[in-house]
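Worked problem 6 (solution included).
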Amino acid sequence: MTRLVLASFNAHWGVRPRGMTSGPRGAAFDVDAVFRRLGADVVVLQESWRPDEGGAFVDDIAVEHGYHLEELPLARAVAGHRPRVRRPGTGTWGLAVLTRLPVVARRELPLGSVPRDPVGDRHALHLRLDVGGGAEMDLVAAHTSSRVPYGPLLHLRRLAPSSPTGSGPRSSPAT
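Solution. The predicted structure is:
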């Protein structure tokens, strides 16, 4: 592979967040349109939403744009006009990675919890991707807590020891 386009964005549950200037808050957000504009090989999507009943918007995006979908549920939640992490919920709120590259390995990396974060224990998703020519790439996707001042810092500190090491793509040994 000579070129790799990686993108990351917060989908806000597929619901239009406050502060957006077009459309009413709480209306459906056209995540598919964002994917069309990105044209990325790999997309890390924070705050994906999977209802207990029916399909999720990430399923449609994966099929429409030719992605393989890897998901990491982070919390039970309730979606709608004001989506909230809540137990019991009507679905799961989490992290999704959509990739056109083959996934060689997958593991979850613990991030722990931070005070006042309703999610509780969080995890990051580590994927090893085949970039072609016998080379692999490690991707670590995370959605840290927004509870400041310490949430993001604590999560990233906890992530560091379990993250993959190395300075570049790995080549698989020839067999």
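Discussion: The beta strands are 6-10, 42-51, 68-78, 84-85, 91-99, 103-112, 122-132, 135-141, 170-171.
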